[in-house]
Inverse folding.
């Protein structure tokens, strides 16, 4: 079976990682798999090297879609009708011309723009099945889901998939779907290598500066500002910590504003902006870390928390639905309200003073990730959707 895995780009984002793992799995199951992505905004596209090493055919498209449907909000007129029946098809046709001429049986996009492109061009691909794959929470992500767009999507009868219950609720709300018309397939975690030696080194290492890591591409909704305010509070209370931010800044002015905030709070020496790191560099940070953090205001099912759990780290994160699906059992005590820097500060302080507690939570997290999010549990769900 010919399968297209369609990613937003070839960076190490959460959706990209899930798509890459699925592509490798399907290839191993005997399917003819190809991976596409829009051009990356980041300085590098490391997944290209990954796909080459796996022997996966991949193609970076020349440009992002240039589709506009704001006309659908305007009162009915000859101009609006012209835009709907002439201009909109022209936009879709222009998008089609930027894509390679290929045929696929199944289209599996990840995130909004790949999903929209795949759905609108399903017939051009001659695909028998196309998936609409929502990877966020109850969040439109600055996208206008007008009645016109919703109708255009539903006309192609995609299979609706979300990676969290809250994401499924979002699809039900936006597309007016019954609950049984949306399938939840949670993220998979697949270890890259054995980290037992790194964990042994962490346990025997002499205490140093208390290390906090936050690994996520830094869109504004990740709310790094709350992390900075918590670090400032910790400094005022005499708690020595260092925060490592790993991830690509989509907006340069956002990066500059965060750096200025660190200066204003007098915590610049307590924060390191790493940007994008190679996989081995990220692993080195995780091996040295004491706590994994995530301060997002909106999430589907965040990969970074799964990574923290695999590395036997305690996790402190925002109390929002997509995160709560991962943070079960004992982890519920380590959630803080969105933008609540005071609560985040108190939780870090509790872990700072109790190494045994950190180790117990870390061991619990490692067990949870293996039991609930391993490849043998998640990938067969994808296989069933794609092959039926």
């Amino acid at each position: 079976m010919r399968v297209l895995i369609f990613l937003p780009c070839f960076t190490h984002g959460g959706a990209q990682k899930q798509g890459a793992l699925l592509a490798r799995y399907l290839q191993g199951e005997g399917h003819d798999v190809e991976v596409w992505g829009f051009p990356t905004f980041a300085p590098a596209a490391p997944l290209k090297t990954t796909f080459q090493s796996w022997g996966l055919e991949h193609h970076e498209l020349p440009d992002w879609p240039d589709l506009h449907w704001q006309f659908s909000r305007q009162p009915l007129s000859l101009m609006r009708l012209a835009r709907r029946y002439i201009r909109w098809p022209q936009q879709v046709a222009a998008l089609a011309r930027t894509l390679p001429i290929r045929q696929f049986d199944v289209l599996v996009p990840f995130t909004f723009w790949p999903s929209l492109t795949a759905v609108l061009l399903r017939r051009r691909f001659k695909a028998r099945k196309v998936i609409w794959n929502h990877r966020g929470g109850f969040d439109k992500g600055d996208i206008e889901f007008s009645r016109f767009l919703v109708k255009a999507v539903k006309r192609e009868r995609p299979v609706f998939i979300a990676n969290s219950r809250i994401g499924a609720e979002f699809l039900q709300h936006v597309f007016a779907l019954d609950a049984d018309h949306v399938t939840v397939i949670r993220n998979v975690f697949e270890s890259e290598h054995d980290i037992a030696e790194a964990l042994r080194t962490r346990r025997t290492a002499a205490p140093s500066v208390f290390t906090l890591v936050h690994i996520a591409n830094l869109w504004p909704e990740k709310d790094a500002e709350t992390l900075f305010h918590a670090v400032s509070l910790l400094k005022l209370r005499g708690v020595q910590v260092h925060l490592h931010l790993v991830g690509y800044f989509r907006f340069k002015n956002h990066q500059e504003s965060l750096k200025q905030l660190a200066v204003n709070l007098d915590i610049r020496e307590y924060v390191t902006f790493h940007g994008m790191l190679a996989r081995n560099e990220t692993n080195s940070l995780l091996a040295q870390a004491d706590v994994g953090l995530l301060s997002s205001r909106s999430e589907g099912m965040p990969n970074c928390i799964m990574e923290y759990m695999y590395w036997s780290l305690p996790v402190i994160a925002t109390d929002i639905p997509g995160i709560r699906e991962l943070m079960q059992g004992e982890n519920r005590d380590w959630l803080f309200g969105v933008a609540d820097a005071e609560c985040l500060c108190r939780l870090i302080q509790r872990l700072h003073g109790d190494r045994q507690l950190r180790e117990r939570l870390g061991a619990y997290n490692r067990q949870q990730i293996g039991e609930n999010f391993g490849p043998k549990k998640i990938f067969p769900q994808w296989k069933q959707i794609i092959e039926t």
Summary: The CA atoms of residues 269 and 376 lie 43 Å apart. The domain at 196-372 is CATH 3.40.50.2000 (Rossmann fold). The first helix runs from residue 14 to 28. The mean pLDDT is 91.
